[in-house]
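User: My collaborator sent over this chain with a note saying "see what the structure looks like." That's all I know about it. Can you take a look?
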Amino acid sequence: MIRISLPHFAIAILAVVLTGCNRTTPSKPVKITQFRVTPLFIPKGIPGKLCYGVENATKIELNPPVEELLPAPERCIDISPAQATTYTLTAYGADGGKVTKSLEVGVGNPPPRVTDLSATPIEVKRGGQVRICFKVENAKAVRISKGKLDLKTNCAIDTPRKNTTYKITALGADREEDTGTVTVKVR
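Assistant: Without extra context I'll predict from the sequence alone. Here is the result:
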């Protein structure tokens, strides 16, 4: 039986701990695991999302800067560029290494929107008159599926003979569409 006194045992443990601490573990290389923008084409005045992810980074920078960024495996921030912009993400590692990725974001016209779509009355007798009104934003053109459209008032008049669903379509400058529907019941 081997007897180790407490001071010898403490010295042995200390030697093991110090030996383990003196081992140098090579640092892992820094990586940018993701760098994307949603959508790639951002309408003016509407924010997009710039998302990034890094591994083994001690510091990251975004140019042009949007806000202070911290290393994270996954994070998204809002961006609202005024014009087409190239964003560059640089990640720095503990070993002094760095990696860079860039992406370009397009900016264009805001999409069209159809809002406040209504029919008055919502139920009519056969041959009765109905008025379909709406609001549109950012529209280059407006169409309605049925009825006589007056763009000065953003309303259409119709006399449906059966239940009818009216569809308003707003067309944007970049060929986008937004639609809205309202149904009128005929008794």
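A starting point for your reply to your collaborator: Helices lie at 6-22.
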